[in-house]
Design goal:
Blueprint (H helix, E strand, L loop, with lengths): L1 H11 L11 H5 L8 H44 L20 E6 L5 H10 L6 H11 L6 E6 L4 H8 L8 E4 L5 H12 L3 H9 L21 E4 L5 H19 L5 H16 L6 H13 L7 H7 L9 H4 L24 H8 L8 E6 L4 E5 L2 H18 L1
Antiparallel strand pairs: 1-2, 3-4, 5-6
Helix pairs in contact: 4-5, 5-6, 7-8, 10-11, 10-14, 11-14
């Protein structure tokens, strides 16, 4: 009955609309009721939405209060850890020089946080934060290797040791531009083996280790990086270095076969001749231009390699000795093999050297490494005189 009456009044009721302006009574009137059931439903829907919004807003406020309280408690705990002057957080750290002797190994690729966790597990430092804070404060670089440490050491003392590469054991470092002779001498020292064990593998032609394009020669085929040499044979150590090199060349997109060996050869000369990495490409272009014009390369670095010495120690007799197959002052073309283990930048420069007609270059400033590249012989003598003038002034 009630619903019928509501429907009846909704359909038939008339409302009086007093539109006279300026009446103070108008402002006191309640909102006009809806004129139809559709308006009533619309109003009820609006009221329902307002209730939902109110409920959601209240829930958000409650959540914010709870979260704020949680972080507030954490902040209070954090502030309680600060010392009297309020500027530093108290970090748990050992204060002595250490107790029991122990050996700790840093693996290649490990960061300060991971090293810190392992140090805590070994009971060498008291907390991870003590170690990472000490690393940051010292701006230290941590090197892979095995180190002689003690338990219960002060974090700063541990950082000093782990950032001193001379104290690292069990890892051999291959550096860009090094010769094979340098690499195996260091690998022998770090592994405790005799260098003759490595030399025997080198002299054996690298069967099962080197790719065919290397022609049985290891020079240029040892990838720069750090290698664990503990409890490994000389052959296994060299094989790991060669495998890493082949993988890197694949990653860099260096062509296979004889072209790969050729690029390595050019890159090794650029690595040895250029003072600045930005000049690798120009040196490579000079090499290619001279080959195209059937000119000797004239690189002292190759001559020095053939005599197992350095460019500054070469004699006039050695520079004129054509029996040295690496003497590119006398013998045309590339040397028989690379003359060092070039790094990524030199290899990429050898693959994509800049365009240019340069045939000569001279490092005119030995302090800055500034090198000038020219096209003609007349220009060469000018920059050669500039080199002599700068060198005389430096002395």
């Amino acid at each position: 009955m009630t619903d019928n009456l509501n429907d009846f009044f909704s359909d038939n009721a008339q409302w009086v609309d007093d539109t006279s302006a300026g009446s103070s009574f108008d402002a006191a009137l309640p909102p006009q009721p809806p004129k139809s059931r559709r308006d009533m439903r619309k109003r009820r829907e609006q009221q329902r939405r307002r209730r939902y919004v109110t409920i959601i807003a209240a829930a958000v406020v409650v959540i914010l209060v709870v979260v704020g309280g949680f972080f507030g408690v954490r902040m209070v705990k954090h502030l309680r850890q600060m010392n009297a002057n309020g500027s530093q957080i108290q970090i748990e750290d050992y204060t002595g020089s250490g107790d029991k002797d122990t050996t700790f190994t840093v693996e290649t690729g490990q960061g300060a946080a991971e090293i810190a966790r392992n140090l805590v597990k070994a009971d060498i430092v008291k907390s991870e934060s003590a170690f990472t804070s000490a690393v940051a404060a010292a701006g230290a670089t941590l090197y892979p290797g095995s180190y002689a440490l003690k338990t219960h050491m002060k974090a700063a003392d541990v950082v000093k040791i782990l950032s001193d590469q001379s104290k690292a054991g069990g890892f051999a470092e291959v550096k860009a531009g090094e010769r094979v002779s340098d690499v195996i001498a260091n690998a022998a020292k770090m592994s405790g083996k005799d260098v003759s064990e490595f030399q025997a593998v080198i002299d054996g032609g690298g069967a099962g280790i080197l790719p065919d394009e290397a022609g049985g020669k290891f020079e240029g085929w040892l990838e720069p990086g750090s290698y664990s040499v503990q409890d490994k044979s000389a052959k296994d150590i060299l094989k790991e270095m060669v495998t890493a090199r082949v993988s890197k060349l694949d990653t860099l997109g260096v062509p296979d076969g004889s072209e790969r060996e050729r690029i390595m050869n050019i890159a090794s000369i650029a690595e040895s001749e250029a003072c600045n990495p930005d000049d690798y490409g120009k040196v490579a272009r000079v090499i290619l231009n001279r080959i195209d014009q059937d000119m000797p390369l004239g690189m002292d670095s190759t001559v020095a390699y053939g005599f197992n010495t350095t460019g500054s120690k070469l004699t006039d007799e050695q520079l004129e000795d054509g029996s040295n197959p690496y003497n590119t002052r006398v013998n045309k073309g590339l040397p028989p093999t690379p003359i060092s283990n070039p790094g990524d930048s030199a290899i990429q420069a050898a693959m994509n050297p800049p365009e240019g007609k340069w045939l000569y270059f001279v490092t005119t400033n030995l302090k800055t490494g500034e090198t000038k590249f020219v096209e003609t012989e007349d220009e060469f003598w000018k920059i050669r005189d500039e080199y002599k003038s700068n060198n005389a002034n430096a002395n």
